[in-house]
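Blinded run. Sample ID left blank on purpose so nobody reads anything into the name before looking at the predicted structure. Input follows.
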Amino acid sequence: MSINYAAFLVGHKRKPLWVGETEDRYPDENEIVVKNAAVAINQLDWKMQDMPWVMFKYPRRGQRRYPIPYGDRVLGHALSFATEDERHAGFQNYTVLLSNMASPIPPSLSFESAAVLPLGLSTASAALFHEDGLMLPKPSLNPVKTSTTVLIWGGTSSVGSNAIQLAVAAGCDVIVTASSKNFEAVKRLGADWAVDYNDGSVIEKLKEAFRGRKLAGALDTIGREKTFKQTAEAVSQIDGVKTVVSTIDDFEDSWLPPGVTGNAILAVSIRGLEDEDEKKNVGRMVYEDFLPDALKAGKYRIAPDPLIAGKGLGAIQAALETSKRTPGKKVVMRFEQASLSSRRLTWKQTPHLSVGTGYNPVLVIFNISAKINKQRNSYAQDHTFCHSGKSSPHIAVERSI
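Blinded prediction complete.
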């Protein structure tokens, strides 16, 4: 059994991250264990190092099938920020993922490119399909046209790039705002029309673009006060569903014109609730039922391109600093490559979450390194670091068995 390593945040603003050995992790219900090959750095990651930690809990789903075969190349969304479970953290050699938040990827797609996808995909999915979002029809490779149009403010962002493609897959037309130099890029993703958000008459031009169309709702992918207000103002002047969903942390009701409703969305909401109807689970709808076939058929584009910023856990700190300096880029760190284990990682007999304070909600790309059985191997615990009396490794890793 080889030793696993993780990158730990040992204190507020402590740099660099400390890389060291950590304890074994085992999957609970509705989970898989993966060997990481590449990880995307998100803007939240360096902010969590520089700012006070914010934690919250989220309910675990019940047991169900495991659709991904042993040894497949997959992408997935690591959710330790939501679960407070260090097994679900992403800056580690091995990660435990919820099986409804992972998708197989085709041989034609590199790990580094695939690492770009999950957070933007999850956020866009929450905005478009969740009950707190626009509740569009589920995405399909052969969608039925809805005769409605979605407005996306910020079409070239990671969230915007995914939202365009998902809205089209839901049968909707799409009108976006983007800089004029990116008009062709958003149209390649499926947008029907683009308006320059730098134009002083952007609201009037959006109103004109929607003439004869019915609005299905709007998504502000930028999540700032200015863009939220602009999106809401545009929606107030367009016929249809007058709802704005946004990546903004919070907003004032006074920012909404009369008759317009708003909602701040969270990517983690698509993982589902414990007693939720399977048919309503957005994570399964997107990661299991839609994305694998879409990627295999070449009908889903990865955008933006990855910016590779190092290799190995020791490179994570530099990657965080790169991400801080380049907010418009998707920074990706490679892991050391190794062959899959020939032995099995086993099922944890007690089906409960081990609650900790690992915080990183990063996206991971990986090879599945284990099959799930009904017995658990013994394992030795290694050290973790403590913060405010809680077990708080930035990363938790799996051992290779």
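Unblinding after everyone has recorded impressions. The chain has two domains: 5-116+305-391, 121-265.
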